[in-house]
Structure formats: structure tokens, C-alpha cells
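lol ok so funny story. i was supposed to be doing the assay writeup but got distracted and ended up predicting the structure for this chain instead. priorities right. anyway since i did it might as well share w the group, maybe its usefull for someone
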Amino acid sequence: MKSIKYILVLIAIFSTSCSDWLEMDPVGEKFESNFYQTEEDIFQGLVATYSMLQPKYYNNWSSYYFLANFPSDDSEVVGGGSGDRPEYHAIADFKMLPTNTAILELWRRGFYGVNRANAVILNANPEASAKSKEYIAEAKFLRAYFYFELVRFFGDVPLITKQLLPGEYDQPRVDAAIVYQQIITDLQEAITDLADAPSENYRASKGAGYSLLGKVYLYMASPYYQQRYNFELGATDYYQLAMQQFQEVYGQYALEPNYDDIWSYEHEHGVESIFEIEYANIARGGDWGNGRVNGGNIDVQMSGPRGISTDTLNAGWGFDMVSTDLIALYDAEGDVVRKDGTAYGEAFLTSIGASSWEKNDGYTGWFSKKRAPWAHLTFNSSAEWNYETNERVIRYGDVLLMMAEAALGGGTGNPDTYFNEVRQRAGLGTISGVTLADIKKERRLELAMEGFRYFDLVRWGDAPSVLSDRGFKEGTHEVFPIPQDEIINSNYTLTQNDGY
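and the output, tada:
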């Protein structure tokens, strides 16, 4: 950002020095201060903000989904072994350091997204067209989304809601409680102008706004966050606030009749989908040095079996294997439907013609079906860059289980009602008198390998007991380290989290 400012200063100097001998009307002169004045301008800025939802694969192969999944008991890193992407293995083993390159890219992705959202919010003319207020509302939704990711991963973070001047770049961290309040404000303001059904599926709807706001309140209600961030302990009924948001969504969406369809390409933006990160099957120059220009979901390539050769499933890089602990839970519960929709094993590989594949350290025999590298979803050439499997960020099954949890915590409603809707779709019997233990188990079975488990364990206060054998240390690993490069870039204004 500093470099961009310096470049603009130099441009201004050169423009002034030659103005006495060359007078021309400026051509294509577009800056933030004058760009967002038409509907087309605002939409372009908004699309640029949406683009930051996709993990950007520069040199460090960072993925917000992987970094949320690897510390959980759902997943094993594996890949080509402990020397393959060691930054991932360090996160899974809770040996992450402030110099971890994947964590650095996670931080940067979040603040790049915040910066782009700020550019729209601060500069867009709300009267430019009938659509302008809707676009600004989406930018506020996205800023809230990026900040929710940042505050969950890192705790206290800088809160930037204005365009910074050169003397303001070194921003300190602020209390996470203040960041949460900004997230709430952004979402409340966004919901007013978000569309019920945007003209493009990838864009945030009013239902997405209500769902995310309800989730934020549910996090604020949890014992761990109440204690860590002192969210007006006992003074506010966050469970009821969460339920009020979810009630705006209830009945407006539906569960996919077949659990296995949730993550299929044919059911993207389906009846259960509330908000998705969009990916595209577009080959536009992707290679090892420039893969970031493509629109495909490379997490899919990362998750496939190493060394197979079939017409149905392409070879992948073997990361993010399903843990044997999770498979054992499905088997113990007799949950065949969700097991088959979440994982595939060696029997399936053999059935589609695979004769061999790599089995490196940590190999479990089970791969994530929700990010399977199906051959028909990408180009034959440059396949790894172009899988168009969308990321399901908010879906109705998740909302129903959050409603059950909010109702159990004191919000209006019967937790059994929402809980059993999810169970019945899985072909399992209903439960009366649902407990928090029931909800915890159901969330794991329903949402496995979707990046929710680690954050659930943290907010419930269960991470120290459940993840201790993986290296989790209470008081440290509830959040990630602040990247050392960013601490240095801030002239040490940023401080480090405890224990790192």
C-alpha cells in the first residue's frame, strides 16, 4: 500500500513539472476518489472485493479452509509426507510459529478483502443508480465476513474502516469485542439494502446477512468467548439475538433431499445454499508461477488421492484426508448417508479403476468427497488450476443446527424441531429432549470437513480436552500467531498473541 502511494506521488510530480509545455485532457485517469461514481464503477469494485473470497495462491499455498480444518480432529494433513508443505503440518500439530507462511497469507487475504470493501463503502456514490445501495450493502457484508474470519483466527486485530494516510499505516490491534461490534454494525446496515435474491447467484443476499449475523451472535453467546472477550457478560441475551436472525431465514431455504448432492456441481446454489464462494472452470494462463489468475478451486486438487489414474477421478496431491476418528464416529452412529457424502475410501478407488496410489505418513485410507477432483469439472490440460467446485460457506443445515443451539441456550423455539430436521435428512431417528452434547455430535457429523469443527471446539471450550493429543495448548492455540512479517511491517506496533 505504501508503494502504491509513492507511485501516485511520483505521477503527480511528473504531471506538474511538464504541465507548462504539454496540456492534454487526462485519459483514463481513475483513482479511488473519483472512480466509484457510476453503477458500473461500483460493481467493478464490488467484484474485486468478492474475488478476495477465493484463497489466492501465491508462493505460500494458503487456504483459509485448510487452515481451519487442519487443527481439528476431522482431518489429517498427509500430502507427500511431513516435508510436503511443512507449514500445514505445523498447524495440524499445533507447532505453528509467527513465521508460518500459510498463516501470513491468511492474514493478508483477510486485510486485502477489508481494504477492497473499504474502497467501495467509502467512495461509492449511493445515488449513482437504483443498484448502488445494494452494492454498498454487499461490500459491508463482505467486510463483516472478512473481519469475522480474522477475529476468529487471530483474536484482537487492527480495525480499519477508513482510507489510511501514509502516517497511519502502522495500525495497532484493538480488542476483539470492538471488532465484533463493527461486524454487527456492518451486517445490520447491510441487511437493510441486500436483495432477497440477487441477480447473480454468487452475491450476498438478505438471507446470507441474517445467517452470518446470527452466527456472530451465537459465537458471542458461547462461554469461551464470553470469558475471553467479556461480551457484556450476563447483560445481553445473545442466544435470543441469534435466534431472531435465524428466524428470518427459517423456511426460506430447504435441505437438499439427498445429502450427497450438497457438494455436487449440479446442485451449486441449490435449495440449501445461502452463501457460496464461486469458482470457475476457466483456463487463462495458470501455471506454477501465475496460478492466481485462474478462477478454479485448487483446494480440490490438493485433496485428491496421489498417483491414481482414472477417467472418473483425477489424481490430486493427497492433503486433507478424513481422520479415522471421524470415520469411526460415523460407523458408531450408523450414519451411512453422511459418511458416504463426506468421504470415499479405497474400495471406491478400486471400483473406478485405480490400481495404485501413494500412502504417505498419516495416510488414513479416506479422502474428502466434498472436494473430490472429479474429472468432468476441469480442463484436461492445466486441470489443477480449474476445478469449479464452489465453497459452501453458509448452508441451511448449518443454520438449523445453530437454531437448535440458540434455542437450547434460551432463545425462542424448541431445539428438537430444528435438530431433528437435520437428522431425518440423514435417515436417522429423531431425538426428544436434545442436549448440547447431542448438538455437538450432530454438528460434527453434518458439517464434517467443511472447516467448522476447530472453531466449534474453541467456542464451546472443548478444544483443550478434544485436541490435547494433537498438541493443543490451552491459553495459546485458541488463536493463531500474528505473522512476524506483519509485526515488522507495522514497526512493531502490532503485538504478538500469548504463547507464541
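The beta strands are 75-78, 273-277, 319-322, 343-345, 366-368, 391-395. Residues 90 and 96 are 5 Å apart (CA to CA).
back to the writeup now i swear
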